[in-house]
Amino acid sequence: MNGYGGQPIFILPEGTIRSTGKDAQSRNITAAKAVAESVRTTLGPKGMDKMLVNSIGDVVITNDGVTILEEMDVEHPAAKMMVEVAKTQEDVVGDGTTTAVVIAGELLKKAEALLEQDIHPTVIVRGYRLAKTKALAELTSLSIKVSIENKDMLKKIAMTAMTGKSGENAKEQMAQLAVDAIGYVQGETIDKDYIKVEKKHGASAEDSRLIKGVLLEKEFANPSMRKELKDVKILLLDCALEVKEPERNAEIKVNTPEQLQAFLNQESMMLKDMVKKVSASGANVVFCQKGIDDLAQHYLAKNGISAARRVKKSDIEMLVKATGAKVISSIDEISQSDLGFAGKVYERKIVGEEVIYVEECKDPKAVTIFVRGSTEHVVDELKRAMDDAVLGIISALENNRVVYGGGAIEMEVARSLRQYAESQGGREQLAINAFAEALEIIPKTLAESTGKDPIDIIVELRTRHDKGEKSAGVDVFRATVADMDKLGVVEPLKIKTQAVNSASEAAEMILRIDDVITARSGGAPSMPPMPEE
Ligand code: ADP
Ligand code: MG
């Protein structure tokens, strides 16, 4: 930093760490690759699990890319960008997080090799962009159509999505639950908010089932309320069953015990009146988003009405869709037609906690998949598997398109990219070929997970794709190449387009950085040192 007249010029505060040029690039690439490498071995049905232990000793066992990365709490900025890739993938599609991160890591690894051959980063970025556009177009043109009537295909999508999670044994049954659930809530678009996946340990995965209605983590407000009701008329309230508290500043002066009694009587009369109106509507179960006064609870119970208070808004919304009830905001406006219906409503204690089942709803537009598993860790992973299954079907139905998994689609797109590279020429050609190779990391990793030499499998895959076998992929269970169409390994197109998109964007972004300036940690920038006299 020798500057003007031999005096050093400081443009950055003391303590700032700076790395530039190749140094910055290689550090960023190394950090990003490390993130990809940390989740790579979890890919696919034969992927390994990670056990994550946080600072207070909580344990999570998973092979879910985004779960792993979120728990890892990475520091390096380029590494954080990779975590963003996973998070975006999770937010947009809900699956394919490992795939996205692994492709991003491999794109950078291949770019690193090109940088070593003195190919300028902007050339690589340009080539990668061309390759990305081509890959996205190829993905779409290679995809196949699926519709909601095709339950068989939906089940295959669900089974593929549940990949590798610990639910292998109950997989088929769980996939069926997901398909059934979708069948109920189907409409123009399927809103995943109306397929609630609830979990509780203490039973086996086979005990998981579909509730044609809602499961509430609640108990009835008062122990004297009935805990089991049939042919239930349901009232949903978003106003309290309470007498409004007097204004904060208002004082009620009572001078005699009679006056106090009269006041209390009046309050009790008002509550009684409210309950009368509820009861007159014919409702026998009330779910209230607000509070219910103790005395009102007592009157409700006396009238044979069971009620739960402070029910979550999201649960009330589920109940609207499941039972057909309307949400009422004023006790004076209840009419019979606002009530919803459920065949059964009952309270149960499951592993020490009360839950209320609202089920056997007629034509419910919201349903609950109740996932069970032996221990908390198992059931957590099963819930993630179920979420993936449901989301998988929803993503596939969003644009009615699926592609073959098991690395088949990546092989086929890579093949097209190589042909495309030849037509391009120039140095970008190298980058496009690198992009193609990077996509092959998916079949390669799946092959590796079988324990066999991945090279043999990749070579055979290439040959078979050259012969036109577009659905040839890795049969991870038999450690061979097989037809993914026959095996039923299909995935939503959206997983792949999103993964390719965000992986290449992240790779590009990291490649374009040639200067990393890290502020000194700990608040305000300090003054530059004064030149010495
Ligand atoms: P991600 O976080 O990317 O979804 P997964 O661990 O779920 O990672 O693995 C997804 C990969 O596993 C996809 O490439 C998918 O095609 C592949 N896969 C899923 N099921 C099978 C199967 N039965 N045989 C071969 N590959 C499979
Ligand atoms: Mg997955």
Question: How does this model look, in words?
Answer:
The chain has 533 residues and is of the alpha+beta class. The chain has helices at residues 21-40, 65-72, 77-92, 97-116, 121-142, 151-161, 171-185, 257-280, 294-302, 313-323, 376-399, 408-424, 428-439, 441-449, 454-466, 484-487, 493-511; strands spanning 17-20, 50-53, 59-62, 144-145, 195-201, 209-211, 214-216, 228-237, 285-288, 306-308, 327-328, 340-350, 353-359, 367-373, 401-404, 472-475, 480-483, 490-492, 515-518. Strand 2 (50-53) and strand 3 form a beta hairpin. Bound molecules: adenosine-5'-diphosphate and magnesium ion. Adenosine-5'-diphosphate (ADP) binds next to helix 4 and helix 14.
Write a brief structural summary.
With 533 residues, the chain is α+β, with helices and mostly antiparallel strands. It has 17 helices and 19 strands. The strands form 6 sheets. Strands 7, 8, 9, 10, 11, 12 and 13 form a 7-stranded mixed sheet that branches. The chain has a 3-stranded antiparallel sheet with strand order 4-15-18. A 3-stranded mixed sheet has the order 5-14-6.
